[in-house]
Amino acid sequence: MPRQPLTIIRTGTHQEKGYLVENIAIETLPGYYLTGNLYSPSPSRPSMAGILSPHGHFYHPDGRFQEQQQKLCATLARMGAVVFAYDMVGFGDDNVCDHTIPKALKLQTYNSIRALDFLLSLPDIDTSRIAVTGASGGGTQTILLTAIDSRVKVSVPVVMVSAYFFGGCVCESGMPIHRRPTHLTNNVEIAALAAPRPLLLVSDDSDWTKNCPRLEYPYIRNIYDWYGVPQNVENVHLTGERHDFGPSKRQAVYNFLTIHLRLDTAGVLNGVLFTENNSAVLSIADLTVFNATHPRPPGAASGNDAVMNLLNW
């Protein structure tokens, strides 16, 4: 895979209570810019965990602009982690091509690798405390990156891991990676490749994760038993909840990451619940990387054909 030096563009900074939000673009391929927001503790700390936060197929607003995404990232930053929330192909600022280009899965997975490169290049990041968490399609990106990149130390896919559902979008199973002439697999086996690293499966009973407590989780727990670390895998199943990254799901994520990334709960943990009261929801305009004041660099890739041509390797 191409691994050119990272070009980083910063176009805006927002100081919030206890954390900072920056508008960031990363040139992952020549002329292609992955866009997102970097949430970091303010003031900075001498040793910080790093977390990638890919989003799923959530609309109106797109992905990373959603309240559920902003609350998650802001709260984790207030707990001492540096969090990078970045766009899916065709979402948010990353709108130079359609989400359904034939190699969307390849591009999104490669973008996650480069996003991790970026995160690890930042000062004061503890490389032993690196996690990735996302819901729905972001959960797919979570298990794929964890499977192929050992730099990820903790994995938290939310409302995604299923034995019978691959994802349904070209960005998840379109190339395909699950069914080919030489093999047949599913997201449970891919998620199990996290072993023996800590893994939390968050599920509910209104989507394809409804069977997790009796099917997917026991299978993966057996894999962890073989490694001798059954304590490293957990399932939080939320009866009566829907397909989202809602408050109860975020509470489960905060608790798991606090344990395995050794996050700071001072000022955030109120009894047994993590408070999000000081985690602001900013406007789309605030979080947008490229605009009239900060246009894309000259020569930036634009259009499906131009982006597809960048992936011919």
**Main beta sheet:** 9 strands, mixed
Helix content: 25-40%
Number of helices: 9
C-alpha end-to-end distance: 7 Å
On the 0 to 100 scale, the average pLDDT is: 96
The rough form would be described as: globular
Strand content: 25-35%
The CATH topology annotation of the domain at 7-154 and 244-306 reads as Rossmann fold
Rg to the nearest angstrom? 18 Å
Identify the CATH class of the domain at 7-154 and 244-306.
Answer: Alpha Beta
Query: How many extended strands?
Result: 13
Give, in spatial order, the strands making up the sheet with the most strands: 1-2-3-5-4-6-7-10-11
Structural class: alpha/beta
Order of helices and strands: EEEEHEHEHEHEEHEHEHEEHH
Low-confidence stretches: none
Tell me what the CATH architecture of the domain at 7-154 and 244-306 is.
3-Layer(aba) Sandwich
Describe what you observe in this structure.
The protein has a domain at 7-154 and 244-306: Rossmann fold, CATH 3.40.50. By secondary structure, the protein is an alpha/beta fold. It starts with 6 loop residues before the first strand and ends with a helix. The protein has helices spanning 67-78, 104-121, 137-148, 170-173, 187-192, 216-227, 247-261, 284-287, 304-309, and strands at 7-16, 19-29, 32-41, 48-54, 81-86, 125-135, 154-158, 179-180, 183-184, 199-204, 233-238, 269-270, 273-274. It has a 9-stranded mixed β-sheet with strand order 1-2-3-5-4-6-7-10-11, sandwiched between helices. Strands 8-9 form a two-stranded antiparallel ribbon. A two-stranded antiparallel ribbon has the order 12-13.
